[in-house]
Amino acid sequence: MKLERRAFLKFAGATVAGAAASACSAAPPAPAPTSAPGTSLPPSTSVTPPAGPPDWAALRKQVSLLLPGDSGYDSAKRVFNPAFDGLKPAAIAKCAKPEDVQAAVSAAARRVPIAARSGGHSYAGYSVPDGGLMLDLGGMSSVDVQGEQVVIGAGAKLKDVYATLGGAGRCLPAGTCPSVGIAGLTLGGGIGVLARKYGLTCDHLVSARVVTADGKLRTASADSEPELFWALRGGGGGNFGVVTSFTFRTDPAPSAVTVFSLKFPAGSANDVLAAWQQWLPEAPPELWANVVLSGGSPVGARVSGCHVGDAASLNKILSGFAGATRTVKQLDYLGAMKYFSGSDSRQSFVASSRILSEPADPAKLTSALKGRRGMDLLVDGLGGAVAAVAPEATAFWHRKAIGSVQIYSQADPRNRSVATDSVAEVVNGIGLGGGYVNYIDPALPDWLTAYYGDNATRLKQVAKTYDPDKVFRFAQAVTPD
């Protein structure tokens, strides 16, 4: 059965009309000074890096530290993707307060690589610095609702963020995977199912507490360290410093968020994608949708989404649609976030991303997926409130895009190389540019421009100011020239 294009477009017309361990055992020495609001204290540079590895024994007196061979080390270094289980940090600092991060950064700076881990979802495993110092932020996971704002520790997971906010009747647009950390999500932008209505997660950031490369604890906001604040809103996790907490403004939680799923008959993928690309940019911001193409013969297609409103309103929007099996369910805010969350079990996968900046040739995308079972191409819609912000207003560049594209393949140790090659073939076949830094890919050509567009130059200047010695350097770090 072939989907009739006009049926989908009729649906589109109706839509428009209707309107994403412990605590440290001893106190460290007097912490490095904190920058005062409204000031900027660039770190000093050093000509010669210090010699030798960090003094782990001395650091262990200040911070709860795990070294290879210690009980709990192997489990503490694990991240979401088992593909990175072979990476071996020289030490893991289990941080429970900003002073722990300061002590750890001061001890290891310019001696070994340093990387922070919040949720552990780095697609390239960058939060597990092989031979370096991992800063485990899991001990800083508080979620404190303060009226219309919420203060969230950098180690908090989305499942806990949503539970606390939902219980307080407040809303923060964010991602869907329950074990994703708030830190990486926010620093890369924060695409989610409420983005068209409320914007990106980073758009709600009021301030952040940040330990920079010189060991200072700074407050970044519109009035304090404004360039750093700009960079933290979409400039990518791992760059510029280690955020210890975020303060966000929130919105009242919507009383109803109605979720929906549309399943299409075999052979309709081209028509679905073509119509989706025309429909979503004109849809009301209350409506969010993605389109998922599943590899195989034929390529499968489905559309899922949600509407900030009740089921009756959504059904009116969907009433002109024919040719798909429709499921509609009205939930509250917290229920909708749980609906999209799925499992937080570890998953072995290979993935990359591109940006749908303008309508693509559907046949080009679907042909690249033919016969590739276990691989999905997911297009998450943007527009609405995301596009209402200028690309240069924050570090997140892809404000005017139709959507982000994720190419995702299941992979286990036996077929990982095959899956990697297959993802590369699809990426080359679909012919799209750009990329979303939260789906970071070491193989992405010209990744700096792909992730950050024209904002890359300004980001490099921020790195020059706050990390001139490349203390937080990794393979795809934003660094000074």
What do these coordinates show?
Residues 84-253 form the FAD-binding PCMH-type domain. Its cofactor is FAD. This is FAD-binding dehydrogenase. Residues 1-26 form the signal peptide. It holds the Pfam family FAD_binding_4. The structure is a single chain. This protein is α+β, with helices and mostly antiparallel strands. It folds into three domains: 5-19 and 254-453, Vanillyl-alcohol Oxidase, Chain A, domain 3 (3-Layer(aba) Sandwich); 56-139, 2-Layer Sandwich (Uridine Diphospho-n-acetylenolpyruvylglucosamine Reductase, domain 2); 143-253, 2-Layer Sandwich (Uridine Diphospho-n-acetylenolpyruvylglucosamine Reductase, domain 3). Helix content is 27%, strand content 21%. It has 15 helices and 18 strands. It has helices at 5-17, 56-60, 73-76, 98-108, 158-167, 182-187, 195-198, 226-232, 269-279, 311-318, 333-341, 362-369, 416-430, 447-452, 456-466, and strands spanning 64-66, 91-94, 114-117, 133-136, 143-146, 149-153, 170-171, 205-211, 217-221, 242-249, 251-252, 257-263, 287-294, 300-308, 325-331, 349-356, 375-381, 403-410. A seven-stranded antiparallel beta sheet has the order 15-12-14-13-17-18-16. Strands 5-6-10-8-9 form a five-stranded antiparallel beta sheet. It is globular, with a radius of gyration of 23 Å. The model is unreliable at 1-41 (pLDDT under 50).
